[in-house]
Amino acid sequence: MARPRVTTDTALLDAAAAVLARTGSTGFTLELAGQQAGVSAATLVKRFGSKRGLLIASSQRWIDSIEPEPDSSRGESPLATLHRLSVRSYIDHSQPDDAALHVSSLAADLGDPELTRLLALGWARKRSQLERLIRRAIDAGELRNAPAPTMAARTLFALLEGSFLGWTVDPSGPLLSILDTEFDNLIASWTQKEPPQ
User: Fold this and answer.
1) pTM of the entire structure?
2) Binning pLDDT at 50, 70 and 90, where does residue 1 land?
């Protein structure tokens, strides 16, 4: 009879995420992740095959965490949900050191074809999420002059990611305040009433 797993894969991935947040992927080791989880590095190898396997599993879990059909059951308007799931999604990277580690992990991902593929999938899923929210806001009359939802989602995503990357180079002011301003300026151009004919 097989022995039951004492530590779940979810717990191991939680531990890996905590270490990645502290070290970035370049400083990440199975030993550190094992210490965080209270298991040996050999346990992680047994479950995930290698450090790369663990990073791939972590990336897949990030993709799975992006809600394809965002929940608006909090009583929010579609526009408020759009704000929460765009600007507020950067809260874990709102300190300069955390942001720098995130960017270093991004650079490392781009050096691995499978991690790059997963990154592209995650970004596509995020754009799809934003597109659905923008479509809801248009249908609710909140975004009178927005472009087509697909184009609007690409524009918003590029604005957020570009602003975030710019802030990592020059972290002047709180990140979320900067993203709030960029979001509000863009949305303002999509909510203006059409000029009289």
Assistant:
1) 0.87
2) very low
